[in-house]
Fold this protein.
Amino acid sequence: MLVIADTSALIAISSCNGLHWLDTLFTKIQVPQAVYDEATTQGKPQAEALKSYLADKVLTIEISEFVIATPKLGKGELEAMALYKQQHADRLLIDDLQARKTASYNGIKIIGSIGILLLAKDNGLISSIKPHLDRIQQSNIHISQKLINEALAIETVQIFITSFPQERTSLIILGFLL
C-alpha cells in the first residue's frame, strides 16, 4: 500500500517515536518536496528525525498538472494531493481538517495520525493509544478533544471485541463494528 504523507501528520507520528510504524503498516511512504522542506525546516518540531526518515522518500511534483486548489491550503498539502493522484496512491496521510475535506472532495482516500495510532494498536505495534495521543498533544499538533475521545472509544471497542469475540455479533447488530 502506497501512502503519501503531509507534514503535520508526520510530525505527530514522529513525536510518538512512531515513524517506523509507517514502514511496518504500509509498503511505501512518499512525500512531495514541499512536505520534506516544511518538515525539515530548522527549528521545526521533529525536523532532524524527519530529515533522516524522509531522505529517500521525496518525489517532485508539478501541481499545475492537477486541478486541486483552494486558497486555504499550503503548498505541502497541495503537492501531497497532487502526488497522491500522480502516483495512484492508496492513502493520503494528513491531519489538517480543511485539507482532509478538500482531499475527500477530490476523491482522495485519507488517513490521519490517529488512524495510524489505531492501526499500530490493532497490529500489535503499541499496547495503547493514550500515551501517544498525550505526546501528540504535547507537541503542539492540534487535535480536537472530540476526535481524541472518539479514538479512545474506538480503542475501547477494539479491546472489547478482542477480549470477548463471542459478543461481536451483538456489536454488529448495534452498529458499533469498526
